[in-house]
TrEMBL record:
<dbReference type="InterPro" id="IPR007516">
    <property type="entry name" value="Co_F420_Hydgase/DH_bsu_N"/>
</dbReference>
<dbReference type="InterPro" id="IPR045220">
    <property type="entry name" value="FRHB/FDHB/HCAR-like"/>
</dbReference>
<dbReference type="Pfam" id="PF04422">
    <property type="entry name" value="FrhB_FdhB_N"/>
</dbReference>
<dbReference type="InterPro" id="IPR007525">
    <property type="entry name" value="FrhB_FdhB_C"/>
</dbReference>
<feature type="domain" description="Coenzyme F420 hydrogenase/dehydrogenase beta subunit C-terminal">
    <location>
        <begin position="83"/>
        <end position="251"/>
    </location>
</feature>
<protein>
    <submittedName>
        <fullName>Coenzyme F420 hydrogenase/dehydrogenase, beta subunit C-terminal domain</fullName>
    </submittedName>
</protein>
<dbReference type="Pfam" id="PF04432">
    <property type="entry name" value="FrhB_FdhB_C"/>
</dbReference>
<feature type="domain" description="Coenzyme F420 hydrogenase/dehydrogenase beta subunit N-terminal">
    <location>
        <begin position="3"/>
        <end position="74"/>
    </location>
</feature>
Length: 361
């Protein structure tokens, strides 16, 4: 079975809602998810942890575009008997299933998987780069918020916040940050170039954002949910009947539309990349290498994204080593100008690409 819903902006984060239901109804003893960490204890801003009550669960809400690993929580699940749910991006959920296939203890204890729709993962360097641009040294940062919620602004106007150890808070909209155009691929993990799972297909339930109008302009944020587990479906229906959660059924086409960019990048974009990116690896994917139907401008967009995702780490490392963040900013601004010209027809470059497209077809 597979059913899809859109929440009506009144339910808060749907992941947290479902996870809370699982805990409160005693269906699980713990939820493994990504929560803020103390950077002094391990140098990381986020890590996987297991929440066993609602307070801990709520402290871990919100999206974290930060690399993490599951080794610690898998150890804890092995060591502490109980039933667990794991929240994760598609590749992590798939890894959980593969691990469970070989580990009977984990298989018995991990009873639900809650998947997050995923565009790509960022590297931890992004936090430091945000710091450069907000005038904060990353060593002085105590907490990171990638997306502040503000009901008075469209949900797709991301605003990041860095909270400093001295209590100061710095905020900036993503579009004012050189690496803040999500689609351009700054600091993208290289594995994401070969990923074809957008909606966490192997999870019991998947959650995403409704990136179509009018929902993307609704500052409360609107989730889309794809449910595949009868038990979790029953929880949702119960919540709807009792008026504790407001969901409307939608079809698969609606969900697909909300993730149109993600599907383009990991269907036609992936088929194109398979032909030339990383010739040393030949992953088997649901799409085959091919690009005959793509125009030159579309190909250029995929090439540029690839260049930006690979080049941003190099430019960042060089700037850091030389103690000159300006090197990264200058490189980033140049690449962004090019990307925006090709992709959105912005500026003089955009006009030049439009002209070339009219001439060349
Ligand atoms: C790297 C990444 C890329 C994403 N890309 C897209 C996209 O392209 N399109 C889209 O529609 N949605 C994307 N999402 C999902 C989206 O940002 C929301 O997480 C999702 O819609 C659920 O929102 P919510 O308000 O219900 O979450 P909340 O109720 O706030 O709960 C979020 C839950 O997810 C957990 N969590 C946060 N980050 C991670 C992580 N990295 N790994 C494991 N658990 C985590 C939190 O601990 C919390 O329990 C992405 C998320 C991530 C982490
Ligand atoms: S795009 Fe795919 S490989 Fe990359 S983080 Fe998301 S699920 Fe994992």
């Amino acid at each position: 079975m597979e059913d899809s819903y859109r929440d009506r902006g009144s339910s808060g984060g749907m992941v947290s809602w479902v996870a809370a239901e699982l805990l409160q109804r005693g269906l699980v003893d713990g939820i493994a998810h990504v929560a803020p960490a103390d950077p002094d204890a391990g140098g990381r801003f986020f890590r996987y942890s297991i929440s066993r009550d609602l307070d801990a669960l709520n402290r871990g809400a919100k999206s974290r575009y930060y690399p993490v690993d599951m080794a610690g929580i898998l150890e804890e699940i092995r060591a502490v008997p109980g039933r667990y749910a794991i929240v994760g991006i598609p590749c992590f959920i798939k890894s959980v299933h593969l691990t469970c296939a070989q580990d009977t203890v984990l298989r018995e204890r991990i009873v639900f998987t809650l998947g997050l729709v995923c565009g790509h993962m960022k590297s931890r360097n992004m936090v430091e780069s945000f710091g450069w641009q907000m005038g904060v040294d990353v060593r002085d940062v105590a907490r990171v918020e990638y997306r502040l919620k503000d009901p008075s602004r469209p949900a797709n106007w991301y605003r990041a916040q860095l909270s400093c150890r001295n209590g100061e808070e710095r905020q900036q909209d993503w579009w004012h940050l050189v690496d803040g155009d999500w689609g351009s691929g700054f600091f993208q993990n290289s594995a994401c170039d070969f990923c074809d799972d957008v909606v966490a297909e192997t999870a019991d339930i998947s959650f995403g954002d409704a990136w179509v109008e009018p929902y993307s302009s609704d500052g409360r944020g609107t989730n889309v949910v794809v449910v595949r587990s009868p038990e979790i479906h029953a929880l949702l229906r119960n919540g709807m009947e009792q008026g504790r959660v407001a969901l409307s059924p939608v079809d698969a086409g609606f969900v697909r539309e909300t993730q149109a960019a993600g599907f383009r990048q990991r269907r036609e974009g992936l088929a194109y990349r398979l032909g030339w990116a990383r010739r040393d690896v030949k992953p088997r994917k649901r799409v085959h290498s091919g690009h005959h139907h793509l125009g030159w401008r579309r190909k250029l967009i995929y090439r540029l994204r690839y260049m930006i995702s690979r080049g941003s780490s190099g430019a960042f490392q060089l700037a850091k080593r030389l103690g000159r963040p300006g090197i990264f900013m200058a490189w980033g601004r140049l690449m962004l100008k090019l990307y925006h010209g090709v992709t959105y027809s912005r500026g003089r470059l955009g006009a030049a690409f439009d002209w070339a497209e009219r001439r060349l077809g």
